[in-house]
Structures are given as structure tokens and as C-alpha cells.
Amino acid sequence: MKLEQLLAEVQEANLSNLLLAQSLIRADREQALYRLGISEETANLLTSMTPTQVVRAARTNTLLFQFRPDEAVFTLLTGSRQEASNDTVSRMHAAILQAGRHQEAA
Amino acid sequence: MKTRTKSLVQEAHQVERAVQLIKMGARIQLLSSTTQLPYERLVRIYKEVMGKSPSKGQLPFSTDWFLSWQENAHSSLFLNVHEYLNKTAAMEEVDTFIKAYRLYLEHVQLLEVDPVLSVTRAWRLVQFVDNGMLTMTACSDCGGHFVTYPHEIAKHYVCGLCNPPARAGHGGGNALRREKKALAVAAMA
User: Fold this and answer.
1) Angle, nearest 10°, between helix axes B172-188 and B69-88?
2) CB-CB under 8 Å, B84 with A105
3) Which terminus in chain A has less CB density within 10 A, N or C?
4) How far is CA A50 from CA A22, A56, A60, B92, in A?
5) Å from A75 to nearest chain B CA?
6) Which residues of B touch A (CB under 8 A)?
7) Are B52 and B73 in contact (CB under 8 A)?
8) Is residue B169 a contact partner of residue B88, using CB atoms and an 8 Å limit?
9) How many whole angstroms from its chain centre is CA A104?
10) At what angle do helices A29-36 and B93-110 cross, to 10 degrees?
11) What's the rounded Cα separation, in Å, for the pair B19 and A64?
């Protein structure tokens, strides 16, 4: 894929992620903190953004939302651990680990 | 006779919460410990929502239940979510509980398994942790936090998902635990 196309996709992803984040927070604030892995302060910042500000913020060459799972969670999500003979079990394991990662958000 | 000095708005919140909890399968004991509504009122609301009378009788919940393999996984998932909400959002306890349980149900739905942890058991779990009869310990293997008895030695603790017992899913975890505990006690004698 050409670089221009990739950069355009980065901006599109930023835009849709920002809008999604705003929708989630407005639908149920506390649950959104969990789903997005953010703090109350960050949630306030996000919902305070006007559509113009959202468009402006999205226009960058880096992704605004980062990949959250750390190595442990990632291994379980992709089912590459030996013990993960069962897909459901390793996905539940991943969910438990991810849910416990609240240090960043607090 | 008690004078009703509560605000109507507050009472409306209480009724709303009761309705939400009943829809999630709450039994009367849970409703009476999470709302200030009188028993008769709760029974009436229950009948309205469920279309039948609430089942009577005490619910004998022991801490052991939460340690069996499958139950432990579900309980740990719920409790992690609950703690997450506790630490990040400022809400009244019962609202934290309701939102946490809802998120647990979502998880379980996406995993395509049945919710092993009922809303009433989830509430008992929160109470057990509050009064120190149960706690969470980090697994020395995966680092995840799981429901355990208090005073579990973190260095040695391995969760049931990293180290599934032979008869996992059939209460094997619990029996294995008791055996290990008995051996440990015997060794110290």
C-alpha cells in the first residue's frame, strides 16, 4: 500500500476512534472508562472536543489510540500459550488480565 | 410509624435500581441490602417486574464456592471489572456493582458461555472481599489477579487458568485445594 494511502488511513482511524470514544462516553460514562481504558479527566477532555477540534486532532501522522494489550494479554488473545488448548479459556484468561490493568487509567 | 422524610427523587432512584437488579436476577436479600426500600415494597416491585412472587429462604453462600476452578475464573473476571470501575469512576457502591455486573454479562456473552456467577453471588463476593474473608492475589505466572482466600503467598500462587487441575470444570480445583491444604497441615504437625 502506498504511503499516502496509509497516512490517510491513519487519519481516518483517528477520526472514527475519537468519535467512537465520544459516543461511548456519552452512552455510559463509567463503562466507557472501562472500555477505553482512560481516566475521568481524559474522558472529560474527549467529550469537551467540538467537531472542529476532533477533525483537527485527527489530522496527524501518528495514531492517537495505542495498542493496549501487553505481552501477557496478547499471548492469550492469540492463543499461543501451550495451556490454551481451549479457545474460550484463553480468551477468558485474557479478559481477566486486561480487566486488571487499571493502573494506566487511574 | 416511620416518617417518610426521604426525597421523592432519591426514592425514585432506589426503585430504579431495584428494578435493574431484579431484571438481572437479584433475589430479595440482595435488594434489601442494596436499597433502603422496605421489604414489602421490594416484594411488590419484584412481582411487578417478574410477574411472580420472589422465592423465599436464606441463601447459604460459603467462600469455597468462589475458589472452584470455573467459578473462580468467572468471579475473578467480575471482580477485576468491579475494581477497575471502583478505581476510575466515582459512583455509589450499588451503581458500581450494577455496571460491573453488566460488563461481566457482556464478557460472558461474547465468550459464548453461561454466566456462572449470578448477580446475588456477585454481591456476596463483593461483601466477602469487603470484610476480608476473600481477597485477590496476583498469579506468579501470568500476573493476573484472582479471587483467593486471604494470606495466600503471592510468590507461590498460580491461578487455575495457568495451572488447570486434572478435573477442571468439575469442581476438581476445590477438591485439589483441600487435598493440598490437608497435606500441608499434616506436614507441619
Assistant:
1) 90
2) yes
3) N
4) 10, 10, 17, 30
5) 10
6) 73, 76-77, 80-81, 83-85, 87-91, 95-96, 99, 102-103, 107, 111-113, 142-146, 161-164
7) no
8) no
9) 12
10) 50
11) 40
3-state class (DSSP) for residue B4: coil
CB contact under 8 A, A96 and B146: yes
Which of left, alpha, beta for A65 (phi over 0: left; psi -120 to 50: alpha)? beta
* Cβ-defined contact of B88 to A106 (cutoff 8 Å): yes
Residue B138's DSSP bridge partners are B145
A88 neighbourhood in chain B, CB within 8 Å: 111-113
Q: Do the chains contact at B145 and A100, CB–CB below 8 Å? A: yes
The tens digit of pLDDT for each residue in A81-95 reads 655 457 888 899 999
Is the distance from CB of B85 to CB of B91 less than 8 angstroms? yes
DSSP assignment string, chain A? --HHHHHHHHHHHHHHHHHHHHHHHHH-HHHHHHHHT--HHHHHHHHH--HHHHHHHH-SSS-SS-----HHHHHHHTT-STT--SHHHHHHHHHHHHHH--TTT-
Cell numbers linked to B180: 493440598
Is any Cβ of chain B less than 8 angstroms from the Cβ of A39?
yes
Retrieve residue B41's grid coordinates.
415494597
DSSP tag of B147: E
pLDDT at B180: 54
